[in-house]
Amino acid sequence: MASSDGFEPVPHRAIITICTMGATLMQALDQTIANVALPYMQGSLSASSDEITWVLTSYITAAAIMTAPVGWFASRFGRKRFFITCLIGFTITSMMCGAAQSLSQMVLFRVLQGCFGAALVPLSQATMLDIYPPEKRGAAMAIWGVGVMIGPILGPTLGGYLTELYNWRYVFYINLPFGILAILGLMFFMPRVRGQSAMRFDWIGFSVLSMGIGGLQLMLDRGQDQDWFTSSEIMVECVLGLLGIYLFVVHLLTAARPFIRPGIFRDRNFSAGLAMMFAMGTILVSSSALMAPWLQNLANYPVATAGLTMAPRGIGTMAAMMFAGRYSTRIDARLLMGVGILMLCWSMWVMTGWTPDVTEREVALVIVVQGAGLGLVFIPLQVLAFATLPVALRTDGASLFSLFRNIGAAIGVSVTSGLLARNAQALHAEIGAYANPFNRALQNGTARHMLDPVHAHGAAVLDQLINQQAQIIAYMDDYRLMIFTTAPALLLLLLMRRPRVAAAPSPETHAAMD
């Protein structure tokens, strides 16, 4: 029986939640679980160090391209049927990746795995929003968010454990039991809604969007290795990416039935939420990607110690998610997001002053605050962005959220890593210019003997010190850039409005779902 707000109770909600969380966790884990196994794959598949990275880029590119049309496929074939099909395909292609005997087979299977895996996160998010009443959707998004956020954190650890204990193939085989359980659970307990068989696929829109996303993703993935725009390959990928995105926008505004419905962007909360998700995506991965080499290369932490030092970030994220999930319907979600953004900016500002002498206690405190800031933004953003969006557009919205988060993450990692390398080189040359016989600091006492560039030992020690200082300043510049990326997101809060009634779909809208 439907409640007064139009929500219809769903039986076996707990089982459906567990199954959707399993699907989310599988996809999130596979984004990073193969990273630590790449050196072992390289030997087994007879690949070079450059070729083995295709194992990662092929999956990322395929998943990015196939994220956008998820809403159309769910509407055309029905969400339950499409969800189960993607789970079956993802599980089978995971086993195929584990059994690959050559690099070409591995890349092909990873492309297929990315195509099927692209739908799992947006479909699980849309399902969670549908099976919980409005007053419990904050808690539901917190549960779902833990799977999305904890997967990339656990991925390298779990991948390293499986590779060391068994071999790299079990990095993919581990998906089999979770996939089977999720498939059976959704098959028996997830409500079924008929698809709209009269819908026709927008091949033109999908083609130009695929060209745009594929070109952009390849440019970001290979830019650093190919020295960016000095390479003709990067120039071609950039032109194809920008042209594809431009043609897609034109097609979206002029076509009669594009596969992404333009009406979804009329919802102010959702459109502002997309921009916010993109901004958060730029620091979501790049902040942790910078932290690991900083701890190991500059602070000289052992690998195990560096991993333990970064663990509080995940703890802070999960704690903040649970808090936000519980209180996002009682406290203005914009206030929670504003506090989260300020916490992120504060943590980045503190990190601009870090040197290798910083204490472990300060590092742990700052990254706990940083993780909590992400959690306070992530959950209220999901609740507020989808609060006023019609139920029929939820799957479209969830796929766009995943797409913008992934593109933001790719841009963030590429820009910060590229600037880090270039600034470190430039600063090394600038600081090195002062290491000359006329510098009085190098003419006195111990410095004269230890850092004398005339002798090989002195030149090596001096170069090491200059390189360390250049790296420290380059990291500071990256953290400053991340502040300037994060702080303007506060202005997006002014565009969002707090709904009077949280996400209360009408029975007529529910009937049109999928």
Short characterization:
Among the domains are: 1-192, MFS general substrate transporter like domains (Growth Hormone, Chain: A, Up-down Bundle), CATH 1.20.1250; 202-258.
In terms of structural class, how would the helical and strand content be classed?
Answer: mainly alpha
Radius of gyration: 24 Å
Full CATH superfamily name of the domain at 1-192: MFS general substrate transporter like domains
Q: Outline the biggest β-sheet.
A: none
Instruction: Kindly report the CATH topology of the domain at 1-192.
Output: Growth Hormone, Chain: A
The pLDDT mean sits at 79
Q: Treating each run of at least 4 consecutive H or I residues as one helix, how many helices?
A: 22
- Spans of at least 5 consecutive residues whose pLDDT stays below 50 are 1-6, 501-514
Distance between the termini: 20 Å
Give an account of the 3D structure.
Mean pLDDT is 79; it is low at 1-6 and 501-514. With 514 residues, the chain is an all-alpha fold. It has helices spanning 13-30, 38-44, 54-67, 70-77, 79-98, 103-117, 120-131, 137-165, 170-173, 175-189, 203-222, 232-254, 268-284, 286-298, 303-327, 333-351, 360-387, 394-432, 445-450, 456-486, 489-492, 507-511. Among the domains are: 1-192, MFS general substrate transporter like domains (Growth Hormone, Chain: A); 202-258.
